[in-house]
Amino acid sequence: MRERLAKLLPISFRGRLALSFGTMTLVLGILVYGYVGHVYRAQLLVDRGEALHDLATAAATVLAENLHERQREIELLAATPLYRRSALDSPDLRRSLERLQHAYPAYSWIGVTDAGGVVRSATGGLLAGVDVSQRPWFINGRDAPFMGDLHDAMLLAKVLPDTGDKAPPRFLDIAAPIRDERGALRGVLGAHIHWNWASDVVGVLNPLLAVQKQRELFIADHNGQVIYPSAGARAATLPPLTTAVLDTQSRFTAALWEPDAEYVSAAVALPAEFTSALGWRIVVRQPLHVALQDVVALQRVLAVFALAIITVFLALIWWSATRISRPLEQLAGLAMRIENGEENTPLEVEARSVEVRHLIEALRSMASRLIERREALRDSNARLEHTVAARTAELEIANEELQRIARHDALTSLPNRRAVDERLHEEFIRMRRMRRPLAVLLCDIDHFKRINDTYGHALGDEVLCHVARTLQRSLRESDFIARYGGEEFIALLPATSAEEARHVADKLRRSVETHPHPLAGRVTLSIGFAVADGRHEHDKQAVREADDQLYAAKREGRNRVCGDDRGGEWPSADAHRQLHSAQ
Ligand SMILES: Nc1nc2c(ncn2[C@@H]2O[C@H](COP(=O)(O)OP(=O)(O)OP(=O)(O)O)[C@@H](O)[C@H]2O)c(=O)[nH]1
């Protein structure tokens, strides 16, 4: 796989180095980018969650303290001498109620009942004389200071002036018993706080809920139902909040409030010492994407920063890779030149690292050793070639000598029978082509046995050599004389007619006869000749005829020449063609 990839992408060493480190840097950069982003997101979530928690705590404290103040206000008022002693419907008491309402307009109604639950005095005279004995605030307020949960207006809805609100008014009830000097119950002082009160109280926190931060504050009752913002506002349409959102144990929560809306929120219960009976919880939420929008900004900055770092790193890596690979590339180039025959190329490469310097040294000594060995090999080859040439020449000479020996008679040095056969064949072909007769002379020493017998075999040999030299001297250079066997010689005379053959034969005979051997004395020859011409179809034919003539010369008394004088005939042109095609 790697080899196939390497073939597809022939990347240089520098490229590979840069690619490896570049990839590592890129991966590292992405990991750091991801990790920093993740850590920052987690930290930011904690910060935002804590801020929401602080806000919810502040809201809960403000609400609880205000409620506590209202409760204490009613409690203290009920304990004043005016309420303990004077008639419950006295003008003074009524004025006291009006003053309180005037001082704190969130009170929609403040009234006093007698011990039986009938309203005796009230702000604006509302509900005076009405029996409220079944209302929870009266029932609970008889025994101890009481604070009732938010509820829709019952009796008051009909008598309060219309404020234009579409939803019915909602109230919080506060009540405290009115006792006389002896502690006996005289009646109950009750107040209804209009729910707008919550907006006024929480309103102090509006700057902290800043619009651009999209923080929202909710008050949920003990069932988790949102009671603030008031009915008609968007949040009032929310379903009861989930237990995850209302969890006051954890500092904050990130949860889906709506299918596509994830919020980070913090829930805080109203401080128990003041209003534990209500069980309200303050929830402050902020869309998660708004809470974490700084992460996006940071991620952008990080991305730019990481890109810049990676770019700088890549440039550094490329620079380093170039520094590392340059001497190696130069070395490879020089090694290639040496390989291509430029053996004297000096391995001069500037390298800073010890390893590369060692490599250069090793290559340098390897190259010089290789060059030495190559030169030694070249010398040895030259010597070998010289030796081979000398041996070949010697062999050729020896071969020529062998050829010569194979075709010459060792005793007389004349061509032997084998050479005769080859020459006869050549001359026969030439004879037919040139249409010039070929004379064949067979010469046999007379009574040679007697010479051997008389002078010994060694002298017989000398006589043979003597006759051979005599015959050789007597012939033309174009003629061919050879030892045909024993004391017999053969002469081939190209372009020689029967008449000329007879003449030459006689000259040979006479030449031998007239040149006696110094020891053996006079030697004679018998010669039979034949002339090969157009009649002959085979080269041996003329030799047989010459042999017949030699036999005749011996028979007729020796030292003579016998031959057929008819030689030198040629068939007509047609017959000649037929002869050729037949061959
Ligand atoms: N010294 C010697 N003798 C040879 C050589 N070759 C053949 N001879 C002898 O030559 C003689 C030939 O004898 P023959 O065939 O009877 O012929 P001749 O004695 O010459 O008698 P004619 O030919 O009938 O005249 C034999 O005694 C052979 O031994 C040779 O190389 N050297």
Automatic annotation (TrEMBL):
Keyword Cell membrane: yes
Region span, Disordered: 556-583
Compartments, as annotated in UniProt: Cell membrane
Biased composition (Basic and acidic residues): 556-568
Classification via Pfam families: dCache_1, GGDEF, HAMP
Domain called GGDEF: residue spans: 436-566
Catalytic reaction list: 2 GTP = 3',3'-c-di-GMP + 2 diphosphate
GO terms, molecular function: diguanylate cyclase activity
SMART domains referenced in this protein's UniProt entry, alphabetically: GGDEF, HAMP
GO cellular component: plasma membrane
Name of the molecule in the record: diguanylate cyclase
